[in-house]
Design goal:
CATH superfamily: Vaccinia Virus protein VP39
Order of helices and strands: HHEHEHEEHEEHHEHHE
Strand content: 15-25%
Shape: globular
CATH topology: Rossmann fold
Number of strands: 8
Number of helices: 9
CATH class: Alpha Beta
Helix content: 25-40%
Length: about 250
């Protein structure tokens, strides 16, 4: 998915929430990058995760953030990270260029997935590690005064996603690409309050603006309902994201 300036800035705001800070910590803890290592952030967005990875690998390491969105990369200008514009699935890196990689909320938007995972496998060295995090969009629990309208808006968002249920099949996809899956885990974003600076509250604007095939008037009514529930202390939101740790194994020759 490519973002122009307006959605790119919404992504920046979402990335700065407490929930996304927690998510980045989970990803980094699972990846366990070593000082001096070379790390690739696929679909780096505004660069928050890449910047934290740069701190982890230190001055002797290298972090590269890659994204298809030039608007995102313009917002991700950080001196300790190399940023690269991707023009499609093929990545402009040599074979075995990286010791580790991350891809958060990326592959659910990518087609063809097999080609993308093949590229990831190619650029990782033997023994390299990757952490992939994606959402199953059927795991959303979001209180609404109109469940049918909520369903239509969420269906409109799912139409933007290449595979809104990717975590269910990602183990198989990784193995078919040659990876060994070492660990799988879940990360839940839970928000029973709907504070204005929370991830889910900011998602009201972003998800509503991104939904396909839903009338603007219906999106506006949906958003107003959620904000009213938050103001009355009756808000409820939860969604599951799934983490996969995989390695590029040594192959007998």
């Amino acid at each position: 998915m490519r973002y122009d300036e307006a959605p790119a800035r919404r992504i920046v705001a979402l990335s700065e929430t407490v929930e996304m800070q927690d998510q980045r910590r989970r990803v980094i803890d699972l990846l366990a990058p070593e000082p001096g290592s070379r790390v690739l952030d696929v679909g780096c967005g505004p660069g928050h995760l890449a910047a934290e990875l740069a701190e982890a690998v230190g001055s002797t390491g290298r972090v590269c953030g890659a994204d298809v969105s030039e608007e995102m990369l313009a917002l991700a200008d950080r001196p300790d990270v190399e940023f690269v514009h991707l023009k499609g699935v093929p990545m402009p890196f040599e074979d075995n260029a990286f010791d580790a990689a991350v891809a958060t909320q990326v592959y659910e938007f990518v087609e063809p997935l097999a080609d993308a995972l093949g590229e990831l496998y190619r650029v990782l060295r033997t023994g390299g590690r990757v952490v992939i995090l994606d959402t199953d969009w059927d795991s959303v629990v979001w209180r609404s005064s109109d469940d049918a309208r909520m369903g239509r808006v969420l269906d409109g968002w799912r139409r933007r996603v290449a595979d809104p249920h990717l975590p269910r099949v990602l183990t198989r996809c990784l193995r078919e690409a040659g990876f060994e899956v070492a660990r799988r885990d879940a990360f839940t974003i839970f928000d029973p309050n709907g504070h204005q600076n929370s991830y889910s509250y900011l998602q009201i604007e972003h998800l509503g603006a991104s939904a396909i095939g839903v009338a603007a008037e219906e999106v506006q009514a949906w958003a107003a309902d959620l904000r009213e529930l938050a103001s009355r202390g009756e808000y409820f939101f939860s969604v599951n994201r799934y983490l996969f740790l995989a390695t590029k194994p040594q192959r007998d020759v």
